[in-house]
């Protein structure tokens, strides 16, 4: 599929396309933005809690710093953890899920029992307890922990995909045609799962953002630096919701996080069209 | 090759475990007290039931032995529930004991530095606090821990010395169940009705606006949605008197079936419930719309029309009842999500339920309380899932309820 | 035939809306069904026969519109013009006067309601209040179709086999003693033994219950067994109509001839078996003239100019082909 084809498919679903654009904007802003927009660290006590104006696009925080610059710089940590988590959990889920589906038998039953148990345990309380017990001051550690709790959901989905593909006619056909196991795995099974894996990666990211920001909000992650979650926590603790001037301080990070989540999920709709030929032209 | 096959089979590991237990028997034998024996006995009973007896019954089903066991769907589910709970309790135990920077060590160190106790004294105190006999070998500690859990003895609070953790749970859990349960019910009913409606009226104004609304509200993390609601309803529009909203019950009003009290309870729960509802209703709308559209295309709906059945009967019994069935798996998930999100949401609204209790215990690093609440939330979710499963099997006659599971 | 026909379809035309343009599924179909006779409507997939079948009880999907013609029933001395009737009138008419058994009973019943209850629902919807009466009637009908009433009434759909479900559907169709039974591909989804059973059952129904049956099918052998008269449909239009005997022994329209030649017979000797070459026309862009001309071995130039009208060949036997002259 050529890039122009992919581009056309992207555009076919309007919501998905909108999500894609917004997602790209947020990613650009968080990773490229910091080089363009300098972080405002000067404390200006005579300009605290200013409403949005031309000088300060999103107003100022409790110490007179420009909220817009804080937002631009605040995404990097959150998004890095999200991407890392998505990566780790998708990797684990993919391997364990396909292994389980492919091998079958008692190993499969055992692995699925573990997956079931993990799925039943409510994720956030477990994370909260772990975060209180273990000091999470490192992005990688946090991502690893988040991934350790998200892989079961994806693994189950991957396994069911593998199972359904395993029994499909074209696998039988490939086997009959004696095309070899390697070929079967890479040329027949993989392309069909790929779309699924990518979409689940995005969902893992959104789940990671939910957990991460939640943990930060409860003060369980000793972070420093610029971080959307931290902004929300600071603003909340200082009662920013009660005054008009300070409203932006808490609203801005909430809105940008909400936008990120929404755009990621909307984007998966376009991804579905790209990966599943049957959905194309369904409009 | 045979070895690899052996390694793949989980039964091998069970045998290894068994061998290990037998091997350590001599050292352990004199340390067994009735409590520990009791727990071990229960384990054996459980394994026997799970592996052996059900298979036996299956063979003898036609002979008619123990007919009540034939509705063993229930039994299997119960056993599954139990095994999950045991696993979670074990997991919690190992979290407390084995994680780096685990709370017991921290507590001991704290006690030693703050009160100058010796290591042994601090350790004894920790043992009492956590209900874990720290002097015994690890697996015996585990058995004792399980025994205590079965008894409902969760230890004592760290920050409120002398208060048994159980008091926290009994005081706060009902409120969370109340708010989450009511929230889910309301959200489910509204969501499924609306979802079905827009499936019938496809492409209309309601369809587009509800679909956009749903995709936005389900994307936002529910606690952030809570903050937004608090800002707009409480502060900006002043619809809800925020300062009066703390706590779960109207202050100063004695508990009972009086109007003031009941009104007060609902009033205080409004914001958390509203958050639960707004964050989940979108999901119901979209899913129900989907399943309804699928069901509308089924043959039996056409045949029902040809049979001359009245429209409202078709909508309710033919479309509705079948479209709603797939939603039950999501309902089960939803319960877990909302209970899991309660620490955040209840903290935001200062709604004194179990989530709020966990939040404050987390903040104060009150480990016994923290872990007990985690356990309780998990067990509550597992139990709720079990109930939902039972309900679903009653509604869908295609679910096989016999042993051939 | 002095008596009024039970069903008279006159110059019916039905269109579907689609992105490429209107699909002319039914262009001009007219036929009559008389009391005490079975009529078979034969056509390939895409001939418009199913669309027309659905329209007979106003069960067409929302994307289909009747653009011309009429569907009129004369039952028990009353006249019913389907196009003019209101929705509630049509609802009461359905199943009570005319019942329709759709293709493949595999999923014809609500999977979460017992069969017995579904019989009751049918009765209640038509004003019969006594559950006892409905159940008794249902059980009698189930015995008539050779099923065990006790077992079937308390069962759910998934507990029954395909053949059983087909019979239950037929039994349910007869519950209100309709005058006409419309069967769309009644036996297509079944294995050959079950087909035989169903065919015998249908013969029994005609004998003992005096119901007139309209079969919509592609299966000529079915028509040979059960129909008194046959109507062949091609590209949304009637191409030949006549008594079964006439159609089989004296077919005129090349399409009918092709269909007969393509049907294998039990007595072997199938060396004359041949399929009709080519495929049905695109119902959005129909060619000029006779729509069968592209596949017709006898086609002449004037076939491609004007579409032939129905020409009388014999008593009750008409064909829309120039060969009829």
Number of helices of chain C: 10
Look at the structure and give the mean pLDDT of chain C: 86
Largest inter-chain contact set = A-B, 47 and 54 residues
Low-confidence parts of chain B: 63-67, 401-405
From N to C, what is the helix and strand string of chain C? EEEHEEHEHHHHEHEHEEHHEE
What proportion of the residues of chain C is helical, as a percent range? 25-40%
Q: Radius of gyration of chain C, rounded?
A: 20 Å
The count of DSSP E runs of length 2 or more, i.e. the number of strands of chain B, is 0
Helix amount of chain B:
over 70%
Distance between the termini of chain C: 25 Å
Kindly provide the radius of gyration of chain B, computed on alpha-carbon positions and rounded to a whole number of angstroms: 26 Å
**What structural class do the secondary elements of chain C suggest?**
alpha/beta
In quaternary terms, these chains amount to: heterotrimer
Q: Tell me the series of helices and strands of chain B, N- to C-terminal.
A: HHHHHHHHHHHHHHHHH
Please, how many helices of chain B?
17
Q: Structural class of the helices, strands and pairings of chain B?
A: mainly alpha
The main pleated sheet of chain B reads as: none
Overall 3D geometry of chain C? globular
Measured between the Cα atoms of the first and last residue of chain B, the distance is: 31 Å
Q: Name the poorly predicted regions of chain C.
A: none
Spatial sequence of strands, sheet with the most strands of chain C: 6-7-8-3-9-10-12-11
């Amino acid at each position: 599929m050529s890039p122009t084809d992919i581009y056309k498919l992207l555009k076919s679903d309007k919501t998905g396309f909108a999500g894609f654009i917004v997602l790209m904007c947020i990613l650009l802003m968080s990773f490229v933005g910091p080089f363009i927009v300098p972080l405002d660290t000067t404390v200006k006590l005579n300009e605290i809690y200013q409403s949005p104006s031309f000088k300060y696009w999103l107003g100022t925080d409790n110490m007179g710093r420009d909220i817009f610059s804080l937002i631009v710089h605040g995404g990097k940590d959150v998004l890095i953890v999200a991407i890392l988590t998505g990566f780790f959990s998708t990797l684990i889920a993919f391997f364990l899920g396909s292994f389980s589906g492919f091998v079958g038998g008692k190993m499969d039953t055992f692995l699925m029992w573990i997956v079931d148990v993990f799925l039943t345990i409510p994720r956030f309380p477990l994370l909260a307890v772990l975060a209180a017990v273990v000091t999470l001051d490192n992005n990688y550690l946090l991502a690893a922990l988040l991934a350790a709790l998200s892989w079961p959901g994806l693994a189950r989905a991957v396994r069911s995909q593998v199972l359904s593909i395993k029994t499909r006619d074209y696998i039988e056909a490939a086997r009959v045609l004696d095309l070899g196991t390697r070929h079967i795995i890479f040329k027949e099974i993989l392309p069909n799962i790929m779309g699924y894996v990518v979409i689940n990666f995005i969902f893992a990211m959104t789940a990671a953002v939910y957990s991460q920001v939640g943990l930060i909000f409860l003060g369980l992650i000793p972070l420093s630096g610029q971080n959307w979650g931290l902004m929300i926590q600071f603003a909340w603790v200082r009662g920013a919701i009660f005054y008009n001037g300070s409203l932006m301080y808490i609203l801005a990070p909430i809105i940008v996080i909400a936008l990120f989540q929404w755009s990621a999920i909307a984007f998966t709709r376009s991804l579905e069209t790209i990966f599943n030929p049957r959905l194309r032209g369904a409009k | 090759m045979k070895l690899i096959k052996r390694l793949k089979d989980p039964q091998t590991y069970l045998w290894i475990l068994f061998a290990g237990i037998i091997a350590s028997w001599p050292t352990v034998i004199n340390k067994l007290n009735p409590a520990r024996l009791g727990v071990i006995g229960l384990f054996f009973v459980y394994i026997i039931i799970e592996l052996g007896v059900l298979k036996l019954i299956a063979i003898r089903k036609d002979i008619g032995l123990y007919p009540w066991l034939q509705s063993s769907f229930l039994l299997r589910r119960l056993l599954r529930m139990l095994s999950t709970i045991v696993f979670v309790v074990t997991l919690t135990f190992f979290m407390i004991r084995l994680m780096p920077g685990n709370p017991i060590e921290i507590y001991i160190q704290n006690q030693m530095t703050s009160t100058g106790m010796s290591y042994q004294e601090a350790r004894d105190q920790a043992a009492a606090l956590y209900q874990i006999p720290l002097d015994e070998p690890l697996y015996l500690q585990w058995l004792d821990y399980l025994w205590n859990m079965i008894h409902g003895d969760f230890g004592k609070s760290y920050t409120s010395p002398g208060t048994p953790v159980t008091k926290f749970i009994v005081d706060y859990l009902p409120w969370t169940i109340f708010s989450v349960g009511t929230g889910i019910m309301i959200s489910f009913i509204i969501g499924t009705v609306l979802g079905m409606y827009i499936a019938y009226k496809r492409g209309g104004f309601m369809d587009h606006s509800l679909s956009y609304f749903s995709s936005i509200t389900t994307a936002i993390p529910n606690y952030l949605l809570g903050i937004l609601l608090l800002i707009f309803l409480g502060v900006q529009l002043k619809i809800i008197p925020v300062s009066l909203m703390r706590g779960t019950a109207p202050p100063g009003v004695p508990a009972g079936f009086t109007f003031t009290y009941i009104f007060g309870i609902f009033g205080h729960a409004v914001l958390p419930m509203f958050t639960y509802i707004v964050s989940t209703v979108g999901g119901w709308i979209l899913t129900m719309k989907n399943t309804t559209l699928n069901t509308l295309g089924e043959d039996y709906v056409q045949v029902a029309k040809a049979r001359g059945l009245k429209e409202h009967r078709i909508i309710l019994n033919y479309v509705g009842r079948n479209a709603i069935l797939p939603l039950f798996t999501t309902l089960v998930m939803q319960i877990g999500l909302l209970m899991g999100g309660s620490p955040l949401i209840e903290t935001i609204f200062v709604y004194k339920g179990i989530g709020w209790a966990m939040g404050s215990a987390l903040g104060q690093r009150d480990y016994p309380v923290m872990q007990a609440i985690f356990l309780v939330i998990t067990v509550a979710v597992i139990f709720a899932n079990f109930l939902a499963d039972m309900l679903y099997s009653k509604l869908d006659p295609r679910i096989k309820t016999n042993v051939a599971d | 035939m002095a008596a009024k026909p039970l069903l008279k379809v006159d110059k019916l035309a039905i269109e579907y809306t689609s992105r490429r343009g209107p699909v002319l599924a039914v262009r001009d179909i007219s036929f009559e069904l008389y009391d005490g006779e079975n009529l078979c409507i034969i056509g390939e997939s895409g001939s418009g026969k199913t669309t027309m079948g659905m329209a007979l009880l106003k069960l067409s999907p929302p994307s289909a519109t009747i653009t011309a013609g009429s569907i009129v029933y004369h039952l028990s001395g009353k006249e019913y013009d389907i196009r003019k009737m209101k929705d509630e009138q049509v609802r009461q008419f359905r199943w009570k006067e005319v019942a329709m058994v759709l293709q493949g009973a595999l999923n014809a019943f609500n999977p979460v309601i017992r069969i017995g209850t579904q019989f009751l629902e049918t009765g209640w919807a038509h004003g019969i209040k006594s559950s006892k009466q409905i159940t008794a009637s249902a059980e009698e009908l189930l015995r008539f179709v050779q099923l065990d009433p006790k077992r079937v009434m308390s069962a759910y759909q998934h507990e029954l086999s395909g053949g059983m479900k087909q019979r239950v559907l037929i039994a349910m169709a007869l519950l209100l003693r309709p005058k006409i039974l419309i069967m769309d591909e009644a036996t297509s989804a079944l294995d050959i033994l079950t087909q035989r059973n169903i065919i015998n059952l249908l013969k029994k129904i005609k004998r003992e219950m005096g119901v007139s049956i309209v079969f919509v099918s592609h299966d000529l052998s079915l028509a040979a067994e059960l129909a008194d008269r046959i109507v062949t449909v091609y590209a949304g239009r009637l191409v030949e109509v006549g008594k079964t005997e006439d159609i089989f022994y004296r077919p005129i329209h090349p399409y009918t001839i092709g269909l007969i030649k393509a049907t294998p017979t039990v007595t072997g000797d199938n060396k004359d078996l041949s399929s009709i070459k080519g495929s049905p026309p695109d119902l959005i862009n129909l060619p000029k003239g006779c729509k069968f001309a592209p596949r017709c071995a006898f086609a002449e130039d004037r076939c491609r100019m004007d579409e032939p009208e129905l020409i009388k060949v014999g008593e009750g036997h008409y064909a829309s082909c120039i060969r009829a002259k």
